[in-house]
Amino acid sequence: MPITFGAVGDIISVCLLVKDLVEALDKARGSKAEYQSAIRELWILDRALLEIDLLTRTHGNGATPELRSLCETAKKAATRCRGLVSAFLERVKRYKSTFDESERPNPLTNVTMIIRWHLGEKDALEQFRVEIAGTSSSLQMLLATASVTLLEINRKKINDKLDSAVRSKHSSDTANAAVLTDICHRIDMANDGINAGNSLLGKVSDALRLDWLRQLGSELKELMRRAIAMNFATYHAVISIQKALPSRLERGLIEEPFVLEDPIGRIAPVHLQFVTSWDAFDAVLEIRFRSLQGHRKLRQKKYVIQENAT
C-alpha cells in the first residue's frame, strides 16, 4: 500500500525529536567524547531520516511494487526511531533541572543528580549510541537500495523510449521506401507514355509531313518533363519538412527532468514543463526549505544556481 501523508509527518516528527535530544545532550556534557559520539550518530540519523522523507514524498505513491515495499519499510524504520529517541529523551529530561542554567535546584540534590548521571547513564548512553548507529546503517542501506531501484526504473524507461524511436524510424523508412517505389513506377509509366506518344507523333508526322504536329509533340514532351520535375520538387520538399521536425526520441530527451541538489544535500528531479516561470521555481524552493535552515535567505532570494559541470 502507498505511504500516506501521515507517515511523512511521522518522519518529520522523529527529526524534531532527534534535534531535541541533541540539544539536551549538549546541555548535559557537550565536551565529553561519549556525548559527542552520540551527538554525531544522532546527526547522521537526522540526515538519513531527511533522505527517507524525500524518498517517501517523491515516490510514496508507489510507482512500482519495489518502491512501495521500500517506502513501507521506511515507515517502520521511522516508527522504530521514534521509540528509541523518545525513550532516551525521557531519561535525559529527568536531569533537566540539574543541567539547565535557568533552574535553581538544591545544591545537594544537584550534586547527587550529576553523580547519578555520570555513573548510571553512561552505559545507557553507549547502548543508545549503538542502537542509533545500527538504525542509521539500516536506513542508509535502505536508501542505497532505493537508489538502485530508481536507476533500474529509469534505465527501463529510457530503453523503452529508444525501442519506440527505433520502431518509429523503421516504420518511417518503410513508408519512404514505398513512396519512392511508387514515384519510380509513375516515372516509368510516364516515360512509356511519352515514348508511345513520340512514336505515334513521329508516324503521323512522317505520314502527313505537317510541321505543326512535330511542334505539338515537342510541346507535349516539354509539358510532361515539367510535370515530372514538379513531382520531384514536391517530394524533396516533403522530405525536408520531415527531417526538420524533431523525432520522438528528441522530444523524449527534451522532456527529461534536470536534477537539483540543494545546499543540505537533498536531490530532486525538476520537470521543466511544470516550471513555467521564476516565481513558480521560487515557490517550489520555498516549500522544500520550509522549517529548515536557509528558509529566510531563500525567501529574500539570496541564493544562486550553479550547474554541476562548472
Automatic annotation (TrEMBL):
PANTHER family documented for this protein: NACHT-NTPASE AND P-LOOP NTPASES N-TERMINAL DOMAIN-CONTAINING PROTEIN (PTHR38886:SF1), SESA DOMAIN-CONTAINING PROTEIN (PTHR38886)
Organism of provenance: Setomelanomma holmii
Record domain Ubiquitin-like: where: 255-307
Name of the featured protein: Ubiquitin-like domain-containing protein
Top-level lineage group: Eukaryota
InterPro entries the record matches: ULD_fung
